[in-house]
Every structure is written in C-alpha cells, then in structure tokens.
Design a protein that fits this description.
This protein is an alpha+beta fold and 403 residues long. Helix content is 20%, strand content 37%. A 10-stranded antiparallel β-sheet has the order 6-7-15-22-16-19-20-21-17-18. Strands 8, 9, 10, 11, 12, 13 and 14 form a 7-stranded antiparallel β-sheet that branches.
Length: 403
C-alpha cells in the first residue's frame, strides 16, 4: 500500500494504491489526520488504484467523514473503482458520503460548499489575517483580589474572593474549587475561565486539571486569591494561518491591537500550538508554605516553587488562551495595573487540550470555544509567556470600556 499527495484542479489530493484493510487502515487514518491537522478541511482522496477495501477501511472512511463534518468540512472520494463502490453501496455509506463523479471539477465541487463570510484582510509581520468586525458595545473588566502576597506566600482565608461562575465569562488567576478553605487551600493553582467554564491546575506534585462546566442554572462558585475577569461580546474575530514563521502570542496581540478600539482589550485565542512557554506553581502560595527566606521568585527558591518551560512544549495541541492586552498603559487604573506584569503589555493563561480538529469558520468561534471546553480532554493550565508560538487559529477581541 502507498499513499502520496498530488494536485488536482489546484487542490491537494491524497492518492492511495493497493489494499485498504486491517493491516493498512491505521497508516491511512494517520495520513488523513495529518492532512486535516495541517488545515485541509475539504480532504480529497483518490481511490482509483485501490484494489480492495475491508470493513477496517470503511471504518476509517466513516470516522474521517464524521470528524470533518463536525467542523464544517468534507471527505471527498475521487475515482472510486467499481469493486470499492459496491462495498460502499452494500454498507449504505454511498448514501451520505461525498463521491465525486468523473468529469466534475474538484474545485467546482468544493467552492459551493464553502460558506462565504464577509471579511477584511491585512498583513502583519509576515502573517496574513482575515477578520470580521461587529457593531457591539464594549465589555467590562474587573480585578480580583491582589497579587501583593504572592511572592511571600502569605495568603490566608481572608484573602479569598468567591465568584459565581455566571459572573465571570473570561478570566485568569490563582484559583480553586471548593467550599471549605482548609480542605482546598493547598490546591490553589494556575486557572482560566473560558465562556464561564472553569479550569484549574492544582499546585501539587502530580497535578490533574480540576474543572467545572457551566450551565445557566449553575450555582458553583470559584475561589480566587487574585486575578482578573472580563465579560461582554467580541467586537472582532480574526483568523490566521502561519505560512513560514510561526507567530508568537505577542505577535498575535500586536496584530489584534490594530483592530481593537480601546486602550485595554480582552483577547481569547483558539488555535493549534507551535510550542508553548509557560509557568505553573508547584506549591500553593498560602500562609504556612512560606519560603525560609526571601521571595518564591528568588534564585534559591524558584525551582522549588515554579515549573518553568525552557523550550516550547505541547506542540500541535489545541489551546485556548485568555487574557488582557494593553494599548495605552497610562490609561489604566491602579487596580488593573497591579494584575499586569510591569515589563509586558499582556497577561495570559492558557488551557492545553488534546489535538483534535476545530472549525475554520469565524462565525463559529464562540460555539467552538464551548465545544472544545466540553468535549476535548484538558491536560494542563499555564501562565503563558508572550514568546509562546501558535500555528493557526482564531482571535476574539473584546473592547473594554472600564479600565
């Protein structure tokens, strides 16, 4: 069995030669998944040289069809030989699969299927962006607690701020779930709120993400030591795809700033990682966990307190990053300034999920955020450094009125 790529009607096509059976199905499945991960939402497959297809092959075809359909894509079968077509007919799959008849242009077949969404275009630092803007009111942001006690690990029960999930749409900080402080105090860690869904990475030796999905009747509260939140509607959604150099989170924030209409804006990124750089706490910064002397960020204490990535990690994972970006620091209130690094104009946390396909339609940005949160497997939450790289995806921009 051989798999190779070629052009047909200026469209990339995967061609398969030989048998598609239990011995070859896994290799074919990997080729399909790689093509989709590389951005091919309309995956064309030439079967003209396929000599046999077993039920294992049918399973791969069906799984690929379903995964692409979920994100608005299509699996398109070309030049299907009669024996293979008969197998598809007997299984009933010929009734819903997209089988291109000979003589029809592949590009002509694809184009009517692509939803046309009005969008503008600009180029920034070698990256092409398409975007849509919306006439919507600005959102609001709010600080939570204070970062003043972080470096000395001096937080106590009196510092905890409890927030109902319904009152925080997006946000980051050090937080934990639980109603009893003594029971949860050692688990405060890097946390993120995405569309009211809460994810926290406990500050313990072998952490697993704790999370709470949101529903409109949810009564769950989240406990923060410090952080910030923002809520409202997105004023713009941008799409980007790296061609040569992979953009950093800082590059993306600078590009989004060209579209944002406020001095401080909320930004949410849904995309595919090109190498994440970040930090997470090893210990909860509460009273009783203080370092023997100095700050948790001092050289003698840092490695005991902080997991820190020196090289890009979690490549090709699905990521959602949420944070604030400053366009004019002079306009910020003192309370907001405290929750932003002095040396940077952005502050982000990211949730790292397993690698699956996401939609390429800007109109589905918010619904995809919700789907990823609910259906993908979350692996960690990190305080995200500006140098983190993101290959492709979407950026939601929320203008903020109060800062």
């Amino acid at each position: 069995m051989k798999i190779f790529s070629a052009k047909q009607d200026n469209v990339d096509v995967l061609s398969i030669e030989g048998r598609i059976d239990g011995l070859t199905a896994s290799e074919i499945k990997m080729a399909f998944e790689q093509a989709a991960a590389d951005g091919q939402r309309f995956l064309a497959v030439n079967l003209s040289a396929v000599t046999y297809m077993s039920s294992a092959g049918l399973r791969v075809i069906l799984q690929t069809h379903k995964s692409l359909a979920l994100i608005g894509g299509r699996l398109i079968l070309l030049s299907v030989p009669a024996p293979v077509h008969e197998v598809l007919r007997l299984s009933g799959m010929d009734q819903f699969l997209h089988i291109l008849q000979d003589g029809i242009s592949l590009r002509d077949f694809i184009q009517p299927s692509v939803q046309k969404e009005k969008s503008a275009f600009f180029e920034f630092q070698g990256i092409n962006f398409t975007y849509q803007t919306f006439d919507r009111k600005g959102g609001t942001c709010f600080p939570i607690g204070s970062a003043d006690k972080l470096q000395t690990s001096a937080y106590g029960q009196e510092d905890v701020v409890r927030i109902q999930q319904g009152n925080i749409q997006f946000g980051t900080g050090l937080a934990v779930l639980g109603d009893d402080f003594d029971d949860s105090k050692n688990f405060f860690g890097e946390s993120i709120v995405i569309g009211h869904h809460f994810f926290s990475f406990p500050a313990v030796k072998r952490p697993l993400v704790d999370y709470s999905y949101y529903t409109s009747d949810s009564q769950h509260a989240v406990n923060f030591l410090y952080g910030f939140g923002f809520k409202g509607e997105f004023s713009a959604v941008l799409h980007f795809e790296a061609c040569v150099d992979i953009p950093t989170l800082e590059n993306l924030a600078q590009a989004a700033a060209k579209i944002a209409g406020s001095g401080l804006f909320g930004m949410v990124v849904l995309g595919r990682s090109g190498g994440m750089l970040g930090m997470s706490l090893r210990k909860s910064p509460i009273h009783g966990n203080e370092p023997d002397q100095g700050s948790i960020l001092d050289d003698d204490n840092f490695t005991q307190w902080v997991n820190f990535s020196l090289d890009g990690e979690d490549i090709n994972k699905t990521i959602i990053a949420a944070g604030l970006v400053v366009k004019d620091r002079n306009l910020l209130s003192p309370s907001i300034k405290k929750n932003l690094p002095e040396a940077a104009d952005l502050h982000f946390h990211s949730a790292i999920f397993d690698n699956r396909l996401i939609s390429q339609k800007p109109s589905e940005f918010s619904s995809e955020l919700d789907r990823v949160c609910r259906e993908f497997e979350v692996e960690k939450v990190i305080h995200t450094l500006p140098e983190s790289k993101i290959k492709s995806g979407f950026i939601g921009v929320m203008n903020l009125d109060n800062y």
